[in-house]
Design brief:
The chain is mainly α and 127 residues long. The protein has two domains: 82 residues, no CATH class; 43 residues, no CATH class. The chain has four helices and no strands.
Length: 127
């Protein structure tokens, strides 16, 4: 039971983080709401499983909801793979985010900010 609650809590936290942090990234909002749906479905699945274990006749709902849960998880993975496609994929997205952070840090804490490479380096495959 504790593991299931931990998984549901992690899904809720992941959805909140994705909605807040990826709102400007292509397919980021979709991923956030898919994770939110996954968390809600997992919570309902948890409650139905608990009630079924107590002897209630809810197995007819518990099993199909588990199938929906697996489908939502697959959709979330597919959506995560599409993050930032217009930016060249997730590697380019991470590289640009790091470059933007460096530039903000340099301009905030330095009287003479260091120049930042306008073309972020690819972080995948060492290129």
């Amino acid at each position: 039971m504790a593991n299931a609650l931990l998984a549901v809590g992690a899904a809720f936290l992941a959805s909140a983080a994705a909605i807040a942090m990826l709102r400007r990234v292509r397919n980021g909002r979709k991923l956030g709401f898919l994770l939110l749906g996954l968390a809600v479905t997992a919570l309902v699945e948890l409650m139905l499983g608990k009630m079924t274990a107590r002897g209630e006749n809810l197995l007819w709902a518990h099993v199909p909801l588990g199938v929906i849960l697996v489908g939502l998880a697959g959709q979330a993975v597919a959506s995560a793979r599409k993050l930032g496609e217009d930016a060249g994929g997730i590697g380019e997205l991470v590289a640009r985010t790091i470059a933007d952070g460096r530039q903000r840090y340099a301009s905030r804490f330095s009287a003479h900010p260091a120049p930042v490479d306008p073309e972020p380096r690819r972080m995948i495959d060492g290129n």
